[in-house]
Amino acid sequence: MNTLSIWDLHLPYRALKALLAVFGTNDVSAQDVSHLTEVMVLRIPNCGRKSLNAIREALASVNMALGTEPIISLPMPPQFKPGPVLYPRPVNPDWRTRLVMAEEFIANHKKATL
């Protein structure tokens, strides 16, 4: 079976480097990227809306989409696991702290709406 490499998707440099850093190898296939969900892509450092849209368009050009396949076989990269909550919170938090703060907000919002 011939798999399509991430290099063949012609992604922008920022999106390509961010995905390569998450997977930790240069042998990333388009199918590996299709295992990710949009939320996972947005949690990757240096991956924002523009990178997400570029990845989505590149996968659509080869008839694939984000989050279409189960991610059971993929090991969860450390970037997707939130770190401990830091108290007191720094004035200018890094991306890990912002991620934890966002997840706390979502969890509290879900509790409040129930």
Can you describe what's shown?
The chain folds into two domains: 6-61; 82-113. Residues 69-73 and 85-90 have low confidence and may be disordered. With 114 residues, the chain is mainly α. The protein has five helices and no strands. It is elongated, with a radius of gyration of 16 Å.
Number of helices: 5
Query: What's the total number of strands?
Result: 0
**Residue share in helix:** 40-55%
Number of domains: 2
Alpha-beta classification: mainly alpha
User: What percentage of amino acids are in beta strands?
Assistant: under 5%
Query: Radius of gyration in whole Å, from Cα?
Result: 16 Å
Please describe the topology of this protein.
Layout: H1 13-23, H2 30-34, H3 38-43, H4 49-61, H5 95-113
